[in-house]
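User: Hey, quick favor. My workstation is busy. Could you predict this chain's structure for me?
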Amino acid sequence: MKNKLSSIQSRGQTSRFFAQKQTIFLRYLLFVSLAIPMFSVSAQSGNTLVQGIITNTSNTAISGASVKEVGETNSTLTDSEGRFTLNLSSPNATLSVSYIGYATQEVSVAGRSSLQIIIVSRNEELDEVVVVGYGTQKKTNVTGAISSVNMKELESKPVINVVEALQGTTPGLTIQQSNSQPGSRPSINIRGINTLNNNDPMVIIDGILGDIQNVNMTDIESISVLKDAASAAIYGSRASNGVILITTKKGSKGIARVSYDYILAAQTPTFLPQIVDSWVYAELRNEALFNSGRPIQFSSEQIRDYRENGPDANWMKEIYRASAPQQTHNLSISGGGEKTTYLISGAFTDQESMFKGPDYGLERVNFRTNLETQVSDRFKVNVLAAYSRNALKDHAYWTEWLIEQATRMPSIYPIKNANGDYNYPGGSNSNSLARLEQGGQRSSANDDLSGILNAEYKILDGLKLRGMVGTQLYYNRLKENRKAIPGSGDLENRMTNSSQRIQNITTNLILSYDKTWGVHTFNTMAGYSYEGGTDNRFETFRLLDESGYDIMGGAQTANTGNQEWQNEWSIYSAFLRMNYNFADKYLFEFNLRDDISSKFKAGNRSAWFPSMSAGWRVSEENFYPERLKNMIPSAKIRSSWGLVGNNRIADYQYQATVNVSQGYNFGDTMYPVASFDAVNPDLRWETTQMFNIGADLGFLNNALTVSGEYYVNDTYDILIAIPVPGLFGGGTPIQNAGKVQNKGWEIAARYQFKTGGVDHTVSGNLSDSKNKVIDLKGTDWINGFDVNTVVREGYPIDSYYAYRWDGYFQTEDEVAQGPYLDGITPKRGDLRYLDKNGDGLIKEDDDRFVLGNRFPRLLYGFNYAAAWKGVDFSMFWQGVGQRKVWLRGESVEAFHNNNEGPVFDFHIDRWTPTNPDAGYPRLTVGAESANNAAKSSFWIENAAYLRLKNIQLGYTFPENWTDRVSLSRLRIYTSIQNAFTLSDMKGGWDPETSDGGGRIYPVNRTFSVGLNLNF
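Assistant: No problem, here it is.
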């Protein structure tokens, strides 16, 4: 990241970054200045007047149809009788006629003054093709639960990767972005939580396993989300959490076309904790000390001075920049002749960190090429190559440390002293800003290179043989150089270097046959595949003699540490799919896959994964009433059942391993020690049984489409490590133990219509899922330190497990009655807890409750888009109707852990005798806080939210303007990502944050401008 902006000062200092980009801004301003007058100038009247009438094939007049001269801005709408009149620039002009539910038609005027135009009804779904496993299907013939993402709705969003853009767009697809730190990875789930094991979906990119974070969004042609067994079982052993299929763009016949996209953005936090001013802090600190039986700290004179002179420091704001720049460039070239087409694309993304410090941020480079040639009438070859590099520079510490330290510091201490030295107040030996600016750096470079060769041979009409060979190479390097900071407790110069090389190969051979006999259509496919790979990692650690060294050669050789890992894996598979379609009414599909995995011992390696589904297009029946067909022209119901698998455990879990260490001293002799890990040689596949029922409906000539789903997933033989007694001594072996049920529903709708020349698109989705542990061999699995969760039969996975808050102790009589935490006597204003067993004492073993969980429910998304005469506007709302987050420590507790801070604005509403209905208990410090700091429902917050995820305004210049500068398209736009959020979360934390101490890098709001150029 050379010549990049190190910080953007909020006090009006000149930004070097934006100075470097002034040429781009001037061009943008030029485009805007050209666009503004165009909004106010009406279309120029030509010398030719044409009139006409528009009807459908039933000779019914079409009212409100759009009639536009191609290449110009003049347009009109038909009246109630389907008639129109329009001035043209030329007697040989071409008209474009469009209406919702009908095919767009172009008509040459050819010197005529009167036209009669007939437009044809079109069910767009009839032609829409959906990408499925190892092929494609017409959407109307799909019998499984598949969602296709509208890529046009994702265009121009100022996001770093496609995962962020997908959030809220697809029912059942749960994406949680807990922070926006460069290099962070949002979590992805399809239809909730099915297992106690890994719940990540399988991601297939152009036919091979891939990393969705490394795909450039503008390279994507389509995304399909496979959610049930009918659609996913063809992928067998890794499909129990659903499958995301990504197909990248190809070239098309014609002259070379060049496309360039540019986005320039500024990032700011959506939320930051609101620290109280220094004088308020001093008053509340005195109150907490007094309540705890300690002398007060601040005199009235000091408080008065704080009120008048500050300093009102906020360390959280001091470690972040006021804003951080972000930019993205995308360039592609495509074209082709009669036999060969090509596409070449490249992209560069630069996201700078919000943290202050030397050159922190992420740089990503993408390159992709797709070449396809028709060697002969029967033989076709396709070659794809892709490369991405993610280069990340960050501080050398854990982000949680830095934010924790900054959060604890009260507003009375500036982060730097008057002489510019870093401040270490209250006996602290660390300063977050010092660590960021002087504590060293962690840099990583991750390369992802893949190549794919596809070949297809047409043996006979309908009979095809396809083959594919794909290879991937991941090469990751990390170098961490942590430096000693003078005057602090960070006294070591240390360096860590690591590298990882992963190489995978995928091959498959598929024979397919498609045939239609009258009303009978039969499609079948059978194939074989092999996937395998190696994983080699090495890590070394050294202590350095001097902070100036940045190579291992400056190390103290006596302080070393090296580790090395090597893994191999493979899966052999055979698969089959058969489809039968009778008269486009009755649809049947059967899938079968056999996987043989190296993760299990011989005898347990093979498993079969079948699925079957059926669909009924009721609207195609002869008995379907004509009146109903006019209202609901398209109606289909479908159902599916099947088995899918999960083998996501570490390699070699069925084999006993020995760990050799340096050992222990016995007398003067060091003896090496070998320890063992207990294993289970009888491990077998984890299996999920899926049932799905759904319906697809079309209304208003299919301008309005609605889909709904209900599903039940039962996962059994779950691969988990159930805790064993500590005396066992051999680690916790993986077992097939446990069963989880996951139920849910989804609904999605889309409506396209036109009013007064404005094209409108409205879409929305709503989904919910809930899991329950059915069997865990009668055991409870309690996890966590700051936050306790439990896995217990009859409750959702990882439910919060704590005391239930029962109000405040308001009077001395209430205090006397209890109940008490074991060993603690509360006081008025302290939290009171529900005594579950009625013994008068609150104990962890007896009085904890299951109190919900972090996983979001009732997810929804709503998108509205409009276009008029080149102007386009869109807004996308996304949210969660039900979610709980348990915040602990510095994120919510005043004077946590006997520290001097934090004190947030919501702590002002604390319990006092005159404020008995406060939002926070009485203020205390040290041991006096033990009662209130106990793990209870008081700290579990409602994290439901509604967010304006994206709002965008753009303008596309008319062709008569772009033709003058040899462009085929020019669009400028401005956009805001995470523009607005409604949430009841207190403390200034984003509602998507993770539970725990709130030690989380913020979620960013991004302001952007951009342009799209096509040549």
